[in-house]
Design brief:
By secondary structure, the protein is mainly alpha-helical. The chain has 19 helices and six strands. The protein has a two-stranded antiparallel sheet. Strands 3-4 form a two-stranded parallel sheet. A two-stranded antiparallel ribbon has the order 5-6. It is elongated and about 100 Å long. The chain starts with 16 loop residues before the first helix and ends with a helix.
Length: 459
């Protein structure tokens, strides 16, 4: 016996409900049913507009009332659907009966049999999922990602000229700028976003096994493929003309794979920012009243980026599984997709939660320019690359006879720290042209950033 009243099992419906709440308008059972009602109503409108099966076009008032009822699908309809489904034991059939009831209320019993005519449940479901996923991506998930990209862009420009030690393999390496490193993530995410925007949301509407058999039986003279295509396209979707009973879900796999990849880039961003915080390159801005540790009052933990990491991994686990599962259906139909697709909201929910945390985390950090500058000044050996490259150029130009400049710099710098004085003493003794020598003597780690600052302008 439970000691508690019913509780949400998923933290997305409990602890983290607020950041993901908007997704519930689309990627929930109620959101799916609202879309189903919308599809059924629009199919009736599509048929009556063409006077199919002897019907007459609905008046503007009748059509407006019917569409308004579908658009205002809410608690009353949710409760009534539950009552009907308790009897039908079939969710799409319950939607059909709900629509029929509305037709009766409007005095439209004469066209009641047009409800769900020539349709299989998958005709309604595939279009409903396409619409709900499309809306969830375009109205919720994409704006969240765009906000992260916008903040990263702002910080990339803010720190465009802030020279910073690079760390390849975790070791001091050729300097860059903080802005350029953030711009790399902007560029990567923008590229994924363009690919996601180009995804086609496909829909089929061709009956029990994709052959329009029932349609032709009911009206052999109608061009059902054209009617089906025009209906799907009227919903803002792309028509898939060749399917089994189900739409093959390839577009879903393509979309989820792209979202998964965007998640991976965000995961890389989160781990990089976390690491920069750990070495003092970013200072965290304390949140009033917040506690970093239950026992260590001094701590400000990078919890936003840690939370994002975990939720990006969970999102990828779900969306990756969906991308693999949905593209396989035994013969003309099995129901593995039915169970799997009910978790689309879970996959996007964890991604939205991660995006929320990344954005909040970015707004709670500030570059520690003094720490970054001190790190550069403590690592003059990173100029070894520049020195040996200049020597190579001087040898090629006939202004030096130094053999194996790489080895000479390796002996001087590998595995040890050297300061400005030691490095400049080495340069002063080089057998190279005076112009090149002077150029090297003027070089500092903070100035050895190439065109890093200019590269930020590419975003």
């Amino acid at each position: 016996m439970s000691l508690l009243p019913p509780q949400p099992i998923s933290p997305l419906d409990g602890r983290y409900r607020k950041p993901v709440n908007e997704l519930g308008d689309y990627l929930s059972e109620a959101g799916l049913n609202r879309a189903r009602v919308h599809i059924e109503v629009e199919w009736i409108a599509h048929l009556t507009k063409r006077s199919m099966f002897g019907s007459k076009p609905l008046s503007d008032a009748q059509l407006t009332e019917l569409r308004d009822w579908a658009a205002n699908f809410g608690e009353t309809e949710i409760a009534r659907l539950a009552e009907i489904e308790a009897t039908t034991q079939h969710d799409v059939k319950a939607v059909e009966y709900l629509v029929r009831e509305q037709l009766t209320r409007q005095g439209l019993d004469s066209i009641a049999e047009l409800t769900h005519i020539c349709c299989t449940s998958e005709d309604i479901n595939n279009l409903s999922y396409a619409l709900t996923v499309k809306n969830a991506v375009e109205k919720v998930w994409r704006p969240k990602l765009a906000a992260v990209i916008a903040e990263l862009t702002s910080q990339a420009k803010k720190y465009q000229d802030l020279a910073m030690m690079s760390r390849t393999h975790g070791q001091p390496a050729t300097p860059t700028t903080l802005g350029k490193e953030l711009a790399v993530f902007v560029h990567r995410l923008q590229r994924q976003l363009r690919q996601i925007d180009a995804i086609e949301y496909l829909g089929k509407f061709s009956g029990a096994t994709g052959t329009f058999a029932a349609h032709i039986s009911a009206d052999p003279q109608a061009n059902w493929q054209k009617i089906g295509q025009s209906f799907v396209e009227s919903l803002g979707l792309t028509f898939n003309p060749l399917t089994t009973q189900i739409e093959s879900h390839d577009w879903q796999a393509e979309l989820y794979d792209r979202v998964v990849h965007a998640n991976r880039i965000l995961h890389n961003l989160a781990t990089d920012i976390w690491s920069y915080i750990s070495i003092g390159y970013f200072r965290q801005i304390p949140v009033a009243g917040a506690t970093g540790s239950s026992t260590m009052p001094h701590k400000v933990n990078p919890i936003r980026f840690e939370n994002a990491e975990a939720n990006l991994e969970l999102s990828n686990a779900v969306l990756g599984s969906l991308a693999e599962t949905l593209v396989t259906s035994r013969w003309q139909r099995d129901l593995t997709d039915s169970s799997a697709q009910r978790n689309i909201g879970v996959g996007f929910g964890h991604s939205v939660l991660a995006l929320d945390n990344v954005l909040r985390g970015l707004n709670q950090i500030d570059a520690a320019a003094d720490t970054i500058a001190a790190d550069l000044d403590a690592n003059w050996e990173v100029l070894a690359e520049a020195i040996q490259t200049v020597i190579r150029a001087e040898v090629t130009a006939g202004r030096s006879e130094i053999t194996d400049p790489y080895a000479a710099l390796k002996e001087l710098t590998r595995g040890r720290r050297i300061g400005q004085a030691e490095l400049q003493e080495f340069v002063s003794g080089l057998d190279i042209g005076e112009e090149a020598k002077e150029r090297l003597l003027q070089l500092t780690p903070a100035a050895y950033t190439g065109i890093a600052s200019t590269l930020v302008d590419l975003i």
